[in-house]
Amino acid sequence: xxxxEAERLFNNPDLWHPLRGFQAIARDGLIPATRALYExxxxxxxxxxxxxxxxMALGAQLAHEKLAIPTVSLHLQPTLxxxxxxxxxxxxxxxxxxPLWFKEWWYRYMDREVIDPALAAPINxxxxxxxxxxxxxxxxxxxxxxSRVVALxxxxxxxxxxxxxxxxxxxxxxxxxxGQEAALPEEVERFLD
Length: 193
Description:
The structure is a single chain. This protein is about 45% helix and about 10% strand. About 20% of the residues are buried. Strands 1-2-3-4 form a four-stranded parallel β-sheet, with helices on one face. The chain is α/β, with parallel strands linked by helices.
């Protein structure tokens, strides 16, 4: 998106509201970016193209599904990988000791009342435009590509759960490697000076 679009989202007071925050992110961030990202991937389509994208980059999932482009879902943290065994502690945390039926009910409730009302209709409109059938419960499993899910955190931070997508790989934190520094381009050096 543009700097103006990002500025509008970040300055929206609803972004920081516990109930309206997700709607603001969906309306001003996710939905506009979905079609744009799909079109970018479609334009750059090639036999050797592989896409690595955060699972909230919904346009990448659309391109994976429609154009059969191998896509890796990246997770910086375990928040969006739903688990009935060990639910995320982000947002309204479900206690680990809660019964399985309650955890499933909670996810269905959040999908029905928060996520799908904000995202399903516009995402399904884009899906219809590209010739895909509608989906519901977008955050249940649809956001995880069928190619590979890569978790950018180590096992000690969030151990792999039995109910995570089976094609998930934990690779650890992406750390900056000192010693592989390249000289800055001359124009950057001038700017910094």
